[in-house]
Amino acid sequence: MDEVRVPLVSVHWRRQAFVHWPYPPAVLQRLLPPPLEVDVFEGQGWVSLTPFVMASTRVLGVPLPGSTFPETNLRTYVRRKGGPSGVWFFSLDVTHPAMPAARLLGIPYSLGRLTVQCQGRTCHYAGRRGCRGPGYELVVRTDDRIDAPHGLDSWLTNRFHVYAASAGLLWRIPASHEPWPLFRGTLRRLEQSLLAAAGLPEPAASPLVHTSPGVGPVRLGFPRPG
């Protein structure tokens, strides 16, 4: 993890859910730009749907108006020879109108309608890109805490670099934050069309589910050549 001394963005991530599916690496590789390669765990690639709430969002230290809002990411796990491993976003749906400005760096933000509602140990997430775009509805129950995440649990959640491509260049954005307080989760309901919209086939296996109350502050650094 790089130490981000002067953050471009500082934010707290709250009410996080992670729904992870295994995929054959070759299926994911065709969706990545060179020189990125699929990062694998025991020979398997992974894709994750991660809805959450952005809170106390600051840009260059200045609070973003309306700084608390929902966001939903669809991501996979990548590496670059000679560089750190990280994540690649297939899509990021968000309600805040300022966030799509990050598309200039190749981070594929889209405006949508999203909601997050939690009651006790159960959270209901829903979203729709634009008016008629792909969407999802997800209900997840939080189960037992994972006292010392390791192995696949840690590999899927402890990622401190984002890769993006823009104008023929690969960019890397470092992130730093405390370790996730991580819990097992049970999927109570899921309907989604985000995977197909990203060019992915339906998963062949049931998902692995995590939840977290969140971390923060998360410090996102300035983009660097990848």
Task: Please give a structural write-up.
There is one protein chain. This protein has 226 residues and is mainly β. It is 7% helix and 54% strand. The chain has three helices and 14 strands. It has helices at residues 25-29, 151-157, 194-197, and strands spanning 9-23, 37-38, 45-59, 62-63, 69-79, 86-94, 109-119, 122-129, 135-145, 161-166, 169-176, 183-192, 208-220, 224-225. Strands 1, 2, 3, 4, 5, 6, 7, 8, 9, 10, 11, 12, 13 and 14 form a 14-stranded mixed β-sheet that branches. Strand 7 and strand 8 form a beta hairpin. The protein starts with 8 loop residues before the first strand and ends with a strand.
Distance between the termini: 15 Å
Estimated radius of gyration: 16 Å
Tell me what portion of residues adopts beta-strand conformation: over 45%
Any low-confidence stretches, pLDDT <50, length ≥5? none
The number of E-state strands comes to: 14
Can you give the helix content as a percent range? under 10%
Mean model confidence by pLDDT = 95
